[in-house]
Amino acid sequence: MMMKKTTLTLFCALAIGACTAGQDSVTAEGREWIDLGVTPAVSRLFEEPVFDVDDDENADAEDALFANGAYIDHEDGHEYFAPSLDEEVAQSLRDAMPEWQGELADDLALTNEHGVSLDERSDTLEQVLGSDGRILAPNPGFGSYASIGRYTLQLQGVACPSGSGNCTASCTGTLVGSRYVAISAHCVYDRGANAWINSNRAGFNLRGQMCFNIGSGVTCRNVTSRKISPTWRNSWSTRARHDYALLRLSSAPTGTPVMRMSSLSSSSSIQSKQARQFGYPGTPPNGAASGISQLHGMGCSVTSVTSTRLNHNCDTTGGHSGGPLYYQLSSGRPFLLGIHSGSAVGINNAARVAGSATRTWLVDEMAGW
Q: Among 153, 211, 154, 170, which residue's Cα sits nearest to residue 319?
């Protein structure tokens, strides 16, 4: 973000009382960003939330109470807010994105193609309540697996469960742009503390690190800034549809493939796909120590669809948060359907990406950033 300071006279009402007239703003990405001051931060382990059961009939009315746009934890140490992009400006920024140019829309591709073989599916397609259907990803540095990375923050002292020593907080994220990662908002922003979650261990990057398997090796990049939706920060409810965010990496991870975001819009089309969910669990089911070599997941089903949320029956545990719910064409090309968030009673939830407003938010917030 190029910093061009001005004095703010507009947009204060859009920040839900978070600013007052006369505050500084910066011009970047085709809009003005309100400078909210030094970024509030907390260091703690992530908590995978248990979600409320969505009342989707009231979802639009509830979300309308909150401003559209984005909050950013910027590398200059300040937090900013901006309203949504004007559509004309947004389109011009999208057109300039290498990730957007020549994008293959999966709803124009051949339908009813499945990329997961039957032997990769669990006998019990459900949340981990009995037997665990996850497998260790074979060759995690190849194919769709290579787009799935491990996000870590390094903690010490009272931020760790023991109250001392060192520990690691981890989530899963998906490379959806050359240097942009889609992830769950609860992996970067703690609503209880109303603050961004940072590393507090000396010698480690404040905003964490993303690592990807690539070929037989591993590549890592520091996170320089993070964005969340106002619906996550300002909503009083814990719902998967609010739980999405973006990370900006220090540079593009060389050789790591981008997972495209699905444009499928109909519920039947989404549910017809053989879904997959893979992530980096904090406690791998094979008993190994957690780490970049421990990518686990399974083939499963999307059990229900709303305009903002997907329910699925992939087995997951802590650490899978932020990971992709996706499918593959027979060619092997993967498409992101949703961002795994957590669980409700008897189901797992994902923020819907496919053909949704969340997809538009992710594309627009990458554009020009």
A: 170
Task: Check residue 84 and give its pLDDT.
Answer: 82
Half-sphere exposure of 278 (CA within 13 A, CB side): 28
pTM, entire model: 0.84
Low-confidence ranges of the chain (pLDDT < 50): 2-22, 53, 55, 57, 64-66, 101-104, 107-127, 129
Give the torsion sign (CA, 298, 300, 304, 305): positive
Place of tokens 């973000």: 1
For the chain, the domains span: 89-366
Distance CA 164, CA 108 (A): 54
| Fold of the domain spanning 89-366 | Thrombin, subunit H (2.40.10)
Q: Is-contact 279 316, C-beta < 8 A? A: yes
Distance CA 352, CA 202 (A): 37
Mean pLDDT taken over the chain: 81
